[in-house]
Amino acid sequence: MASTSFPAQPSEKAPTLTSAPAPPETVVTSSPLAAFAAAASPFVNTYGRFASWKAGLGLTNPGTTENMQKEVKMTHATNHIFDGARADLSKALSFNPAFQVTHSFNLASYNNPATYNFGAVFANGDLFMQGGSDHDGNVTGRLNRGWSSNNITKVQMQIANNPNAQSMLQLEQDYQGQDYSLNLKAINPSPIDGTGIYVGSYLQSVTPRLALGFETVHQRVGPGMAESMTSYLLRWTSPPSPVSSLSAAAGAPAPGSHEPGKWIATAHLQAPGILQATYWQRLSEKVDVGADLQMIIAPGRRDAIATVGAKWDLRMSTMRAQVDSTGKVAALLEQRFAPTFSFLVGGEIDHVKNQAKVGVGIMLESSAMTEEMMAQQQPPSIPV
């Protein structure tokens, strides 16, 4: 049998799998700001945890270093006593904004000549200005500018009309944080040679009752003539009473330092061995007591002065009395016969030196506005 042959068919090519071309590789680069944020993230988180922990402690603002002994100074008669006769005549021209002028007369005393001073005060919600001039032509001025409720810039100046007296300029910045206070001062600063006195202080609440801080004074009197000194501060207060705790929980303002039983203790230790300690307590709604101790413990010198005083606030009068370890006894009575008229009489006896001084004075206030106009206006919140 004859074989039949078929023509050869072309072989089919097997399909091949080919991969799609890979897209171009993208290089991701981070911006410097993102890199900085990533590097700072651990520190930010740590600070956030620290701030949350500190907020849970219930810390409050400790006040300024300048007002640490304010309660004791207001209780003692030292800053209120005067010699001779004096009269203060004040007149309020406006209530809000506050504008007041004052004429002060001091008659000649045993140690001081007669003086006259004219003063004016203007204040509103964010500005406080005070100026004065005496009979010798010396001018004083003070300006406070409040940028916020806790940030105030202060300027004080004194221009002496006497070649033997020195004029003064003081620049100050005061900031009150939630649980700390920061204050910077520059007295007679010179931007040319850097001379002047520079003061920086910081006070921090470490517990609801205890605050610690420091104050550094840097004095530069000339090229290569500079010195610095650091002192340390302590403020310790009494625990809050149940009444103030309930008031704070209810949203009402706590009585604070006006509640009976409240006490405040402070200490100020300076480098050369100088210690000042104070204690103030409110015994009742009308009686305050205060004690002040100043000690010098330095090589070759040891000295101390202790002062104890009390203040009575009655309905129409205020009485201050004090005695110290040097033999001085002082008392001051302020009698208010009317809301606008007060009579003052005070005296001091130094039993060791066998000296005495007596002072009498009056304070008279008047207003250019009627009582109805004053009742319609609210007093401004003055930045001080």
UniProtKB/TrEMBL annotation:
Family, as annotated: Belongs to the Tom40 family.
Protein name as annotated: Import receptor subunit tom40
Species the sequence originates in: Thanatephorus cucumeris (strain AG1-IA) (Rice sheath blight fungus)
Gene Ontology CC terms: mitochondrial outer membrane
Keywords for the protein's UniProt record, in alphabetical order: Membrane, Mitochondrion, Mitochondrion outer membrane, Protein transport, Receptor, Transmembrane, Transmembrane beta strand, Transport
InterPro entries: Porin_dom_sf (IPR023614), Porin_Euk/Tom40 (IPR027246), Tom40 (IPR037930)
Pfam families to which the protein is assigned, alphabetical: Porin_3
Gene3D superfamilies in the record: Porin (2.40.160.10)
Top-rank lineage group of the source organism: Eukaryota
GO BP terms: protein import into mitochondrial matrix
Main location: mitochondrion
Subcellular location: Mitochondrion outer membrane
Disordered: region residues: 1-24
GO molecular function, one term: protein transmembrane transporter activity
Annotated membrane topology: Multi-pass membrane protein
